[in-house]
């Protein structure tokens, strides 16, 4: 009951750590990347950590101990799984075009 919102928040903030928010900038002669974690497979990391958020939905449905909330949570899980599979297939085209799973490389390819 109490851990479901915590799991959702952790999933959101952990996946946010690999997303580049600003371009590189120079401060006092040093090049700085405004990024918490520079991961070579950041795209897979973001998909994986955001996929873990379905545990929060499932635990939230189970916590109320009501059959209708469990059915609603199951419907939400089915929707998330179907959306993530289509989204991952759409991202394959970007990875094939750029040739990298790094979000920094994908961002640099756009400019």
Automatic annotation (TrEMBL):
Entry's localization field: Cell membrane; Membrane
GO biological process, one term: aerobic respiration
Alphabetized GO MF terms: NADH dehydrogenase activity
The enzyme's E.C. designation: 1.6.5.11
Pfam families: NADHdh
Protein topology in the membrane: Multi-pass membrane protein
Protein name listed in UniProt: NADH-quinone oxidoreductase subunit H
Native source organism of the sequence: Campylobacter jejuni
């Amino acid at each position: 009951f109490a851990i479901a919102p915590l799991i959702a928040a952790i999933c959101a903030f952990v996946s946010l750590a690999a997303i580049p928010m600003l371009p590189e900038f120079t401060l006092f002669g040093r090049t700085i990347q405004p990024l918490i974690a520079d991961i070579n497979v950041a795209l897979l990391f973001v998909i994986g950590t955001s996929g873990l958020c379905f545990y929060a939905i499932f635990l939230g449905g189970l916590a109320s101990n009501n059959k209708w909330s469990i059915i609603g949570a199951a419907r939400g899980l089915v929707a998330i799984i179907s959306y993530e599979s289509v989204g991952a297939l759409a991202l394959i085209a970007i990875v094939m075009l750029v040739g990298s799973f790094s979000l920094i490389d994908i961002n640099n390819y756009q400019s």
